[in-house]
User: Which sequence fits this backbone?
């Protein structure tokens, strides 16, 4: 799903990376630790600010990232030009990630799953591309926010089968993950760290 104008402004404004660093990244780092020297994936990369944070805060060696919207991938390519070295970017869909099984040490989601209609199949795909022992770092907007009468008028989000903290935790378990830790803020925002079991 692509963003409407208000969401574009919220996601692509200069304050977004600062908020992301102070709240989302700090919480996930506390819950799940670093991904030192890892080959990692960010789903829904937006303008590429998350890539910088994955390198600086989590210590990744390489970052692959994609977004459904070609316009924002273009912005990310301006931030990380050439698609060479330790960053690779493409236009893509979280339900069909074009890599072999067990490709990544970690996958990062900074508030993308709530945009996906069939989000459970996205969890299955994230599980597939993680190596055994790999870690999923996930920050999400929860059902109470999505279905609020004001926000549902301003922001276009799918309304069917949205999740709260418990429902997403259960779905992660159903996809095969071991949920290591969860946290929430006012039933509006949730943080999840989940591992793919080692074989």
Assistant:
């Amino acid at each position: 799903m692509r963003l409407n104008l208000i969401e574009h402004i919220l996601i692509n404004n200069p304050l977004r990376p600062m908020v992301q660093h102070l709240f989302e990244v700090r919480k996930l780092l506390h819950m799940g630790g670093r991904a030192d020297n890892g080959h990692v994936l960010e789903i829904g990369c937006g303008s590429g600010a998350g890539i910088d944070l994955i390198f600086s805060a989590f210590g990744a060696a390489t970052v692959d990232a994609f977004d459904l919207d070609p316009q924002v991938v273009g912005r990310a390519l301006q931030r990380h030009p050439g698609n060479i070295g330790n960053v690779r970017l493409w236009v893509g869909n979280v339900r069909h990630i074009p890599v072999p099984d067990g490709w990544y040490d970690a996958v990062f989601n900074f508030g993308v799953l709530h945009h996906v209609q069939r989000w459970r199949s996205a969890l299955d795909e994230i599980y597939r591309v993680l190596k055994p022992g790999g870690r999923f770092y996930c920050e999400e907007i929860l059902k109470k926010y999505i279905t609020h009468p004001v926000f549902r008028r301003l922001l276009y989000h799918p309304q069917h089968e949205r999740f709260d903290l418990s429902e997403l935790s259960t779905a992660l378990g159903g996809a095969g993950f071991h949920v290591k830790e969860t946290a929430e803020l006012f039933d509006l925002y949730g943080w999840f760290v989940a591992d793919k079991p080692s074989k």
In short: Helices lie at 5-12, 15-32, 49-58, 70-79, 119-129, 143-146, 149-154, 165-174. The first strand starts at residue 39 and ends at 43. The two ends are 34 Å apart (CA to CA).
